[in-house]
Design goal:
The chain is of the alpha/beta class. The protein is 41% helix and 13% strand. It is elongated, with a radius of gyration of 25 Å. Bound molecules: adenosine-5'-triphosphate and magnesium ion.
Length: 491
């Protein structure tokens, strides 16, 4: 593309439509009913960013995006569309791609440590009650104070068992942590493990710089999270993406408004992020989305209906691509009107009416132009992709993974000394000491210590910090503190 340096060609109607790279970090929204062209739109955006040297992260929820890694077939309907929209230099070609998979089946494994995930997101993941979340916060706090690394699930489980056994000592120092509460958290952990999340927690943890690679020709890599299986655990999916977004937010430096984004992050099936979530989390999403822009990250939500996205998040999404919506029921009609109202109107047509009439692969487009003002909405035939629409064959994916720039980095898991090992060793020492005292020491060495340890080094100041952790802000601060301490240790 001649224009690739400053803008991406999206398609055309009366006029060609572009996405300006310098406003691409002002986020975006792709919406439309099933089968209207959202995934292909995501595909042409990802291709365009890659060509412009911008790495991309996206999820493949249905398995139909992986074809982005190989050249498409020059079918007649694609060539016709290209001609219709004046895409003179339309040529088929692959996009440099890295596949990831939380379950390590269809891509490189993606891992995070338990401490990186932090108690706030983990509580959401486990669907904990307030009391359980409070107990989990205390567990993280104690791990921090006692120098116990929380890397994987067995670290967390060992720590929780240890807390339950220490009982009163914990309660007097930190607040109430009952055996029943700990038991409930343990059961929730088991549910998560049964979903296959066990592999996700551990090391080597994902280094976000590996999502920001550029190939030898200066094209950005498209990181595709293979998410078909993950979508069967929507909460894990949404929490994982949220975690990734907050990692990017916390780790990337401020860059102001760059000429082009450093990374573009697509959040497919975005309604999963916002349904049935605590206000504290919505606040967090809003906060991260607002501030991540100046770190050069553009976030694009992809969902069926703009009503899926809370107003305050919606207000921050400057670049809009609206595919067709149906308008049979009153509720659908309302959604259409709401969607229409968010655009800068075009006197040439009625926006609401147009939304219901759009063909497949056609959309209403409005992007940010000079000075960041939204362009007048235009009915636009979206450009055809250069890569394949649809899935890769397994052997094709294997070949691409063979060439992957991160090959060998994540493929095998590591198991360092952490909470589980330390607690087990402490228990073993205790058992040995008890034997020396001639006591009965039938306790198996692998069980964590049943501490009668009186860690009274805990002074009033610390206690009050921990108590403040009951507010969501306090929790967030506590999480940051933990991150600061543990995050640097785990890297
Ligand atoms: N820009 C385009 N150029 C050419 N064909 C397109 C384009 N957009 C969509 N199509 C055609 O429409 C089909 C459906 O599009 P797509 O898979 O993107 O829909 P979707 O909105 O993602 O659907 P779902 O909600 O079911 O995931 C594609 O397989 C392709 O044949
Ligand atoms: Mg789709």
């Amino acid at each position: 593309m001649n224009d690739a340096d400053e803008r991406l060609f999206l398609g055309a109607s009366a006029e060609p439509q572009y996405l300006e790279l310098r406003y691409a970090n002002r986020h975006g929204l792709v919406t439309g009913a099933t089968g209207t062209g959202k995934t292909v739109t995501l595909q042409i955006l990802a291709e365009g960013f890659s060509r412009a040297g911008v790495p991309v992260f996206c999820a493949d929820a249905k398995g139909d995006l992986s074809g982005i890694a190989v050249a498409g077939e020059a079918k007649d309907f694609l060539l016709e569309r290209a001609e219709k929209i004046g895409l003179a230099d339309y040529a088929m070609g692959p996009t440099p791609t890295v596949f990831w998979d939380l379950f390590a089946e269809q891509g490189h494994p993606v891992r995070a440590t338990v401490s990186e995930m932090g108690p706030l997101l983990l509580s959401r993941l486990l669907e904990l009650s307030d009391a359980q979340e409070g107990a989990l916060n205390i567990a993280f706090r104690i791990a921090d104070e006692e120098g116990l690394l929380l890397l994987d699930m067995k670290d967390l489980r060992a720590l929780l068992t240890n807390l339950a056994e220490r009982g009163r000592e914990i309660t007097t120092t930190y607040g109430n942590v009952t055996k029943a509460t700990v038991g409930a958290i343990q059961r929730r952990l088991l549910v998560l493990e049964n979903q296959g999340a066990e592999n996700f927690f551990g090391e080597p943890a994902l280094d976000i710089r590996d999502l920001m690679r550029i190939d030898r020709d200066g094209r950005g890599f498209v990181n595709v999270l293979m998410a078909e299986r993950l979508m069967t655990s929507p909460r894990l999916y949404a929490t994982f993406l949220l975690w990734l977004l907050s990692e990017l937010f916390e780790q990337l430096p401020e860059v102001g408004d760059p000429e082009r984004p450093k990374l573009v992050f697509f959040f497919d099936e975005a309604h999963l992020l916002f349904t049935d979530v605590a206000p504290a989390l919505i606040e967090k999403v809003e906060h991260v989305v607002r501030l991540i822009r100046s770190k050069g990250v553009g976030v694009y939500f992809v969902t069926q209906n703009p009503l899926d996205v809370p107003d305050r998040v919606l207000a921050q999404l400057g670049n809009r691509i609206q595919h067709a919506l149906r308008a049979y029921t009153p509720r659908e009609q309302k959604a259409v009107r709401t969607a229409a109202d968010t655009f800068r109107q075009n006197p040439g047509f009625d926006t609401a009416e147009a939304i219901t009439q759009l063909g497949v692969g056609e959309a209403l487009v409005s992007t940010l132009e000079a000075k960041g003002v939204p362009s007048m909405v235009e009915r636009t035939l979206i450009r055809p992709p250069a890569s394949r629409m649809g899935p890769l064959r397994p052997e094709e994916r294997r070949a691409i993974m063979e060439e992957s720039p991160v090959r060998g980095i994540y493929d095998r898991s590591l198991d360092r000394e952490s909470a589980y090992e330390l607690l087990a060793a402490a228990a073993a020492r205790k058992t040995a000491a008890a034997e020396d005292d001639g006591e009965d020491a039938a306790k198996p060495a692998s069980r964590p210590a049943s501490g009668r340890r009186s860690d009274t080094a805990w002074e009033a100041g610390i206690k009050s910090v921990v108590r403040s952790v009951s507010s969501s802000v306090g929790r967030e601060i506590a999480r940051r503190l933990l991150r600061g301490v543990l995050g640097s240790l785990t890297r």
